[in-house]
User: Fold these one by one.
Assistant:
Number 1:
Amino acid sequence: MAEKKNLPHNHGRINFIIEDSLPDDAAINGVSDAMKQLGDPTRLRIFWYLCHTEECVLDIAAAVKMTSPAISHHLRLLKAAGLITSRREGKEMLYKAADSDLAQALHHMIENIAEITCPE
């Protein structure tokens, strides 16, 4: 059993068990950074799009009606947050959602909140 800690206020709850289960700073910071990036509507749209396809900058730009340089900026931020990955195919870079638990969870959260379903 977890050791009971002396919290500033004892309200008769078992907060010490919850306190022992708090995620570490690295885990919290990673999720926080990812969610910050998805706080921008354009990045949210791009991320959702890339959850369903692998595309180059030009096709992403056409799909979301933005310029390629603007898309490249957003892709750089999404990639830094670990939400997307890229691979080179010839002269083109192709982007898709990362194959991670975090990316998948955020993808499903977006679809649940927005009440949309994955395209078939």
Note: Strands lie at 55-56, 84-89, 92-97.
Number 2:
Amino acid sequence: MISIIDLASWLLLAAGSFFTLVGALGLLRMPDVFTRMHAASVTETLGVGFLVLGMLLQTGFSLVALKLLMLLGLFFFVSPVVTHALAQACLHERVEPTLTEDRRGRGLPTAKIDAGGSSL
């Protein structure tokens, strides 16, 4: 008989695996670096959160649980900072997002950036 904690742990691990795979698929399918960063940062943060919570339920109260909580906190603070730094580096190198037409057939506006960094 499966206990409630084991069932909850496996559900969290399955959900975390699903979101991590969706993030990996987003890296392959999205058209430009900005949408790829979005897909990776949002879904993989959620995926890692679920995976760590599932592992926390499996370990119980121990030193391993404390280490998992420290890794989770580190990941939640470092991942957005790295994504922001990567986006700023792309903007600094003048990488422009791929914009497509919306449903009404109008083109979306693009922002032009001059040498000083201000938009025109």
Note: The longest helix spans residues 63-92.
Number 3:
Amino acid sequence: MYQPDTIVAISTPPGRGGIGIVRLSGPQALTISRQLLTLATPLEHTRARFTKILDEDGTTIDEAIATAFLAPNSYTGEHLVEIAAHGSPVVLDHIVHRALSLGARLAEPGEFSRRAFLAGRLDLTQAEAIHDLIAAQTLAQARTAAQQLGGALSRRIAPIKQQLLHLIAMLEAGMDFATGELDDVDTMPTERIATALTAITTPLQQLADTFRYGSIQRNGIRLALVGRPNAGKSSLFNRLLDRDRAIVTATPGTTRDTIEEIFSLNGIPIHLIDTAGLNTAPTIDEAEALGITRSREALAEADLILLVRDATDNTPLADLDPLLHTRPTIRIANKVDLLAATPPSPDELPTSALTGAGLDHLRSAILAHLRSGSASTDEAALNNRRQHQAVTASLVALAAAVTANHAQLPHELLLLDLHAALNALDTLTGTTTTDDILSLIFSTFCIGK
């Protein structure tokens, strides 16, 4: 049987800190650790031991805490040792180089997690959740990743997969037991198959519908403030950030370039972009012209546009509409504090960057847009394209099965579609995922995880 080699890596971030951790995993992890450390007795499973780190001559380099996790009850399913030393890069590098000289190999990015997956300690959705948890920028992202790391998505898939397996088994059993004059008769009626296919397809489609919001929660969106000069875009930009980031003056055209900042809205990262005013005057200087060009680029790349109008200026914005024809847009009438009594148009949100009026409604409108067309997010959601493609492929195969059943085709052909649907679900959790896909996924992890 193949025996993997022993790998080593620093698992804490680069730089200096109070503690730094070096990990070893593999069949020689315990043997190498005994030569690195002063241990009177062998390391025991999950028991932390105070020890000293030695150099090649047996001289003490540092004091440390060593903890062993013995196979198969470790993160990787192999013998795993974690050495927690003081967070000096020199000390940590010394531990790694000593381990390399004693027969270990430097771990590749994500190799510890890949070994955990291959050992059956994690499925692929849980392994991806580890990466998401490390990369989380908001508490909501961390909660979602922790939920998925706990197997929430796998648990949502399990009953769907079980129903599909049951249908496959029933059809195959019917074919196996058809005998004599019944050889050409399918034993499971078309109506019953149709009911079973609906019971599988409906929750799977509901899961597929979570992808839009799941992806937004994981990756955030780009939100651009656009409009004419002096509409109050930069003031709204500062209000949404809750700090004075953009320079604001009464002079039109103060913003000459795009400004980007990230803030969190109900746990969703928002890449907020303040743009130069889209001035349609025939005479503008070169700097303003370049700023307008960048504004149009930001508008084209944005996921959502906030079109800001000065509520006291009734000049039509029709010349801007062609730019927004295919773009999701929230229209805003700003500076309503300057209005005597006339309210803005019903299709505009009234706001005042000066007083803060309407800002809560604006935030609610942004959140409503983010959630539009998405399924309930109370349960586990798909949050990356690989997951979505796997579920979509399964739905396509199930749709083909529905068509075959409606046409009353032989069950051998129906089973081909059902097995294709099952294989697609298996790629979601990693049961049948190829090495190329695994390499692509785990290569995005940090070294030491």
Note: The longest strand covers residues 60-69.
